[in-house]
Amino acid sequence: MKDVVLFFPKPWPSEEMTGRIPYSLLHLYSYLKGDENLDVKIVDERLVSNMPTFINELGDNILCFGISSFTGVQIANGLRIAGMLRSKFPDIPIIWGGWHPSCMPEQTLKNPLVDIVVRYQGEETFKCLLYTLTDKQPLSKVEGISYKHDTKIIHNPDRKLLPILENLKLSYDIIDVEKYIYKMPWGKRTVGMITSLGCPFNCGFCAVATAYKRRVFFRNLDYVFKEIDYLVDKYKIDAVTFDDDNFFVSQKRVKEFCEILINKPYRISWDAGAHVGLLLKNYDDETLKLIKESGCKQLYIGAESGSDEVLEIIGKKATVSQTFEYVRKMRKVGIKSFLSTMVCFPGSTSDDIYATMDMILKCREIDPDLGYRLFYYTPYPKTPLYERAIEMGMKEPENLEEWSQHTLRKFKAPWIKKHFRHQVRFFYFYYFPYSADSLCSYYDPDAKLFKKILIRLYRLIFENRLLMRLAKWRIKNHCYKFQIDAYFVTQGQHLKSLYNRLINKRVDLFYDYED
Fold first, then answer.
1. What is the C-alpha radius of gyration for the chain, rounded to an integer number of angstroms?
2. Which domain holds residue 355?
3. Same domain, 185 and 334
4. What are the two backbone dihedrals, phi and then psi, of residue 182, each rounded to the nearest 5 degrees?
5. Is 509 helix (H, G, I), strand (E, B) or coil?
6. Residues 126, 74 share a domain
7. Nearest 5 degrees, angle CA 405-CA 409-CA 414?
8. What is the DSSP track for 465-498?
9. Please, which residues bridge with residue 394 across strands?
10. Per the domain annotation, does 202 fall within a domain?
């Protein structure tokens, strides 16, 4: 029996364990389960205290080492571990898969720590590849891979997309689910799940359409609920976040899901994401009430921008007025609204930043409990806007090492002045929270005396009533000149972020917005 190691590199620079179950690898493991000739292991770097020791303890029976990676930090960590492995096992094939290698197979294979790339939907491709490696057959017959042969890079034909997900039974016993449980406002023991992959839309910043050809692959709801039953029974899960690309594509399926959940002997809370146009078109008030009754606490949409012109540029197939209508509907039915927004798209102007800020503030007027995130647009390969970003001055990374630094935290669009990046940070950490009726300050009832004193000092200096009044005045009058107060507040956030990194060994939200 040959060993197959599936490795998930840390996706963030922090030292703490954060994030969802590595479903890309769990799908692979579950698809391969039952093969008596293979012993497949999932290794999540977030859970391994000492990777060098782990590499040194590996035996000589390894068939291959697989690495899943998204663009950014995961590449750097994947290369680091691949280097350790190559030093001890120079002849073991190192196979890369996931979003980035799939989008950039040629460039990825130019790195000496990459031997084979599995492109896009990987379950059947990887299975065929393992059989080929076991039998020592030529790689030329394996569809869906790219590989090195002598000094050449070979790209085999694409593999046809298959409805693999529908009847895939996930084997949660291979992972320590307890390590992936986190808290949400509506659940003390929450876990992420995926019930479908793919999206029918083709937004300019997103690569999902490239991978799944605008098709959606659904999992069998019977299997989904068997897994939820298992997680509730064994791990006492009380909430689930559904990380589908678009949970609400099929109204019929969503209604069936809600009706099944309502009739379960247990109660769980849940949240999921939707496209606003599809949600408003296909889900009437009665259906939304059913969704609410089943335990839905939050629906989030990619509102993206407060400018209809920008929404047209990015191919969103939605309007700003639809965002307002969505918030009103959610408020009426009692489900929390959450907006995901972006600024600094190529082809947009600085006015887009202020339009998006205004949209978020108007949504808060409709629903004071509104949640949102505000990102800088970051161009990713194989997305409709990628070439436009290059035309407007983006320097394209030339190798894997450079791609490892290409993240929303570090990318700075050459078409946007630094002043406007500051404006986004000021809005997120000052104008929006400080202009609310009350400021939600950090509170830790279990903190030791010294920490409680630091918190009180922080509130007195950086969260006082004068700053709140100034923020409200600026928002009301659209006055964003001479922003000394905004600089002052963000310096306080910088101190808090520094404390979290040095003392708590974790990266907080402010790190996303640091220059």
1. 24
2. 181-385+405-416
3. yes
4. -140, 170
5. helix
6. yes
7. 80
8. HHHHHHHHHHHHHT--SS-HHHHHHHHHHHHHHH
9. none
10. yes
CA distance 496 to 491: 9
Tokens of 390: 């290059």
pLDDT confidence of residue 13: 73
Mean pLDDT of 320-340: 97
Q: In which order are the strands placed within the sheet that holds 145-149?
A: 38-44, 2-8, 62-68, 94-97, 116-118, 145-149, 152-155
Which region, left, alpha or beta, applies to residue 203 given φ > 0 means left and ψ of -120 to 50 means alpha? beta
Residue 98 and residue 78 in contact, taking contact as beta carbons nearer than 8 Å: no
Per residue, the 3-state secondary structure of 368-433, as one string, reads: CCCEEEEEECCCCCCCCCHHHHHHCCCCCCCCHHHHCCCCCCCCCCCCCCHHHHHHHHHHHHHHHH
Please spell the DSSP secondary structure of 112-181, one letter per residue.
TT--EEE-SS-HHHHHHHHHHHHTT--GGG-TTEEEEETTEEEEPPPPPP--GGGGPPP-GGGS-GGGG-
d(CA 319, CA 304): 10
* 460 domain residue, yes or no: no
Residues 117 and 201 in one domain: no
The 10 Å Cβ neighbour count of residue 166 is 12
Is residue 434 in some structural domain? no
Residues 48 and 112 reside in one and the same domain: yes
Whole-number Å distance between alpha carbons of 198 and 178: 28
3-state secondary structure 18-58: CCCCCHHHHHHHHHHCCCCCEEEEEEEHHHCCCHHHHHHCC
How confident is the model at residue 14, as a pLDDT?
67
Residue 9 lies in a domain: yes
Distance CA 322, CA 500 (A): 38
Residue 24 has pLDDT above 90, yes or no: yes
Say what the pTM is: 0.91
- Asked if 251 and 290 touch (Cβ cutoff 8 Å), the reply is no
Q: How many domains does the chain contain in total?
A: 2
Residue 417, amino acid: K
With vertex at residue 106, the alpha carbon angle to CA 104 and CA 111, rounded to the nearest 5 degrees, is 100
- Got the DSSP string for 330-345? HHHHT-EEEEEEEE--
DSSP 3-state assignment of 248? coil
Cβ contacts of 446 within 8 Å, gap of 6 or more: none
147 with 201, same domain: the answer is no
Q: Of the candidates 316, 309, 317, 320, which has an alpha carbon nearest to the alpha carbon of residue 363?
A: 320
Residue 12 or 107, more confident: 107
Query: Distance between CA atoms of 285 and 220, rounded to whole angstroms?
Result: 26
The reported pLDDT for the residue numbered 37 is 84
CA 360 vs CA 64, 302, 310, 314: distances in Å: 48, 12, 15, 19
Tokens representing residue 105 in the block: 């197979």
